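Why should sequence recovery work at all? Because a backbone constrains its sequence more than one might expect. Tight turns favour small or flexible residues, buried strands favour hydrophobic ones, and helices have their own preferences. The token representation captures these environments compactly. In the example below, the structure is given first.
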């Protein structure tokens, strides 16, 4: 019996070759993805003199933490962290709530005009009002300029994420909700007590999409925020990468003279500090991508 099982498990030469090619392509792709980050990380510990002479390097020739002392010594980086964490957490929860309340009704065949509503939602993915009407709406009509809510409300809903979650809800066996309706449960009871508890993979996937969007947001801050206390991390990073004066001001706060500012390594160190937390979070959430997105496509 054991030999029979082993013969079934044993791969043919073609299967082994196919597996080797797949792993080789995946490995090369991973190297291409990791290589830029390793260069940034190594260069962030390099001295400015070696940076000017040798350029980027994975292994620093003269290890120094001066750039990190400048970055972590500036109180503005901590304010930006607080703004980004607030917008990411609050914005993700609010976006998930909005998405759930629209995706679940559209997944029910009994909803009248659900195809029409879905079409108009999809239409917004193809066309938009443009930058000028959006700017006038947010700044003048809604009055969100220099408010932390301008980083949350304009991007609180994604039609693409809603359609993904709707397909996920549509893939859940209808017998579960029908049995609850027979017992006298209403739509909200079915949603909160039956549908959502078994939809954690889909919710985690959509939540990660929203969290990444909020964490990497900088464009709205550039348009609508002038108060430096409300700058998110990505906008602060963008200003530093483009503006040498911003880096000099950061260096002055920790007592480093203008001539000693490690410009290039400071850029690399700031990049590591900004993207580090989300990079560390991603491996813990990536397992939900496969289960979260494929379950909704299977109907049993």
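From this structural description, the recovered sequence reads:
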């Amino acid at each position: 019996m054991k030999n029979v099982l082993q013969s079934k498990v044993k791969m043919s030469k073609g299967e082994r070759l196919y597996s080797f090619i797949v792993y080789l392509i995946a490995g090369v792709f991973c190297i291409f993805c990791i290589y830029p980050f390793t260069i940034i990380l190594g260069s962030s510990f390099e001295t400015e003199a070696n940076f000017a002479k040798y350029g980027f390097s994975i292994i620093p020739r003269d290890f120094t933490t001066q750039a990190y002392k400048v970055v972590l010594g500036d109180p503005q980086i901590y304010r930006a962290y607080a703004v980004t964490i607030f917008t990411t957490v609050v914005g993700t929860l609010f976006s998930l709530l909005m998405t759930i309340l629209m995706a679940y009704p559209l997944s029910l065949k009994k909803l009248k005009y659900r195809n029409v509503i879905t079409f108009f939602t999809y239409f917004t993915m193809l066309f938009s009002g443009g930058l000028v009407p959006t700017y006038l709406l947010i700044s003048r009509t809604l009055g969100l300029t220099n408010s932390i809510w301008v980083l949350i409300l304009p991007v609180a809903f994604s039609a693409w994420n809603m359609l993904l979650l709707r397909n996920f809800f549509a893939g859940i066996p209808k017998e579960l909700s029908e049995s609850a309706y027979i017992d006298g449960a209403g739509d909200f009871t079915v949603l909160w007590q039956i549908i959502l508890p078994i939809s954690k993979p889909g919710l985690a996937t959509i939540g990660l999409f929203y969290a990444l969007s909020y964490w990497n947001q900088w464009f709205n801050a550039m348009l609508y925020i002038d108060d430096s206390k409300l700058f998110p991390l990505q906008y602060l990073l963008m200003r530093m990468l483009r503006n040498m004066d911003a880096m000099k001001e950061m260096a002055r706060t920790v007592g480093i003279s203008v001539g000693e500012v490690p410009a290039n390594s400071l850029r690399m160190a700031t990049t590591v500090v900004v993207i580090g937390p989300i990079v560390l979070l991603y491996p813990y959430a990536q397992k939900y991508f496969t289960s979260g997105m494929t379950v909704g496509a299977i109907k049993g």
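A few observations help interpret the result. Confidence is low (pLDDT under 50) at residues 4-8, 293-300.
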